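Hi R.,

Here are the chain sequences for the assembly we discussed:
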Amino acid sequence: MDESTLIARVRAGDSAAERALYDAHVDRVYRLAFRLAGDDALAQDFTQETFIRAFDRLGSFRGDAAFSTWLHTITTTVVLNGLRKVKRFRQREADIDDAHDIGVAQRHAEPDLKVRLKQAIDALPEGYRTVFLLHDVEGYTHEEIGAALGVETGTSKAQLSRARAKLRVALSDFAGEWIA
Amino acid sequence: MMDQHEDPKFEQWLKGAAKSYHSPLPTPREEIWNEGARRNKRVIELRPWLRWAVAAAAVLVLGIGIGRWSANLASSRATASTAAAGRRIPNEIDSLASVAYQIAATQYLSRTEAFLTSFRADANRSASTARLARQARDLLTTTQLMLDSPAADNPRLRSLLEDLELVLMQISQLNPVQDGHDRDLINQGMNQSNVLPKLRSAIPAGPVPVRTEGAL
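And here is the predicted structure of the full complex:
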């Protein structure tokens, strides 16, 4: 059964078609949610929320773009909004932790490359980080990213370039890795 | 021509190295589907209640409207036209629908206050993490419905609902292994943001029949 028939059947209330549509797309949605959130429980919540919203709003899907593009737009919206809320909450916790740590001497071991890379990606501004992960890690095209984030293709390209430049500076201690 | 900032070797290396960043686990398809179905069921269970409340309010207003209209006809007042009564009815339906949403919001806030008070007071951790997480998830669903309802048109209530959404999300994800530490952090966060005082001040004075229903 092709996807447009499946979508028509979901609109008509066919729950088996709903499950089939979910099965066809859940891996990519969960993968994207996990890549952006880095947490299984959050990724599951975001995936679930994405499908609930998608099925609720399927009537507004006109078919101008591919269903997967439309679904990934919902996914990125759900994940980025959800992460902002979680970040607000974690910031409060971090403030409390910082207050408790006052006066305690800190010793940091030299982190390895994997840790430094994670820190550098986490430190990117949200827009840069999202574009970098979608393009360089998940393999989305700039057109797909533009559609998902509601930005011009040129903006996506510019953000990717800036993200890479920031990462190169942040990881300059490890330059031997890529020069070799 | 290559941009001076481009470094193909670095970019190639970065693409490979970054694959390890938040490397996804296998998709838990069934868990996500089942939880989504459970949440949907919950929404379906709640929505008819809200619809019935609004429908009951609408019937009441129609009754009042028809009564006034008949009275006006009986007294033969020329100025009380059918059109005027017709215009008044939708306004009064809107007004009573808004009251229905306010009642729903008050009941929800009372349940949430009872739950969070009990959560904070449970210093000896006698309540099981699973039970707390389940109750928080139930209230979280209602919070999200409230955020999508006209009740959230009030900026103060919306801000409070957003704070509650965060707290309930955190409780719903309590980890049984690090339970004590997590609960302390949640309590400290609640104290810092004054969620409970704000919640209490948002609940109108007077008896709330469902204060102890639902979550507790």
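The longest helix of chain A spans residues 67-101. Residues 102-110 of chain A have pLDDT under 50 and may be disordered.

Let me know if anything looks off.

Best,
T.
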